[in-house]
C-alpha cells in the first residue's frame, strides 16, 4: 500500500457476509446507497456488534480488483423471491484478505457506513477517528493538538436534536455533556491554536472529564 492510495472503510454488520467475502472474494454495496470512492485501491472493513470480541474495529483489508453493477438475483440466484432480488448492487471484487497486526479500534460505540481515507493514514491509525480526511488542515491540527493533551475528540460527530440532525466537525464527549467545535472557531496560527486547545482541555475538565467508552451524554 502506498501513502496516497485511496482506502474505503466499509461497515460490516454481519459475520455471515464476512464469511461470504472470505469464500468468494467479493463484497456487495446497494447501488442506491453506494458512496463515492468505489475506485479506491483498497477496501477495509469495520465490524459491527455481532462480531463479539472483534466488534467496533477494523481488522482486515484487501486490494480492490474491480467492480460491476449487477442485480441481487445475479449475486444470489438461489433467492429469487427475495424482496430486493431486482435491485441493483455493486459487486466489488477483492484480492486476498490481509489482517492488520494491530486493529484500528473505535474507543466509543459508533456505527459508520463508510470512511474515505488514505494509505498513510490507514497504516498509522490507532483509533477510528485517525482515519478521517474530511475537514481540512485546521481540523487535523486541532485534532492532533487535543490528542497531545490526552483528549480524544470525535471526528464528523453526528448530532440529533429536536430541530434536526447535523454533523459537528469535532466534538469532545464529556461526562456532563459535550463540547462541539466548528471549523470557523479554530484559529489559524500555531500559537492561537495551542491556546484554543488548552481552552478546550479546561472546558473538558469543567464538564467532568471526557468519557472513554460507551455512549456519552447527548446533552
Explain what this protein looks like in three dimensions.
With 219 residues, this protein is an alpha+beta fold. The chain has 2 domains: 6-131, Archaeosine Trna-guanine Transglycosylase, Chain: A, domain 4; 136-206, no CATH class. It is built from 5 helices and 10 strands. Strands 1, 2, 3, 4, 5, 6 and 7 form a 7-stranded mixed β-sheet that branches. A hairpin with a 2-residue loop joins β8 (154-161) and β9 (164-174). The longest helix has 17 residues, at 190-206. It is elongated. The termini are far apart.
Topology, element by element:
Blueprint: E1 6-12, H1 15-24, E2 26-30, E3 42-47, E4 57-71, H2 72-75, E5 88-94, E6 98-105, E7 114-118, H3 119-124, H4 136-148, E8 154-161, E9 164-174, E10 177-181, H5 190-206
Largest sheet: 7 strands, mixed
Portion of residues in beta strands equals: 35-45%
Point out poorly predicted stretches: 214-219
Distance between the termini: 41 Å
In short:
The chain has 219 residues and is an alpha+beta fold. It is elongated, with a radius of gyration of 19 Å. Helices cover 23% and strands 35% of the residues.
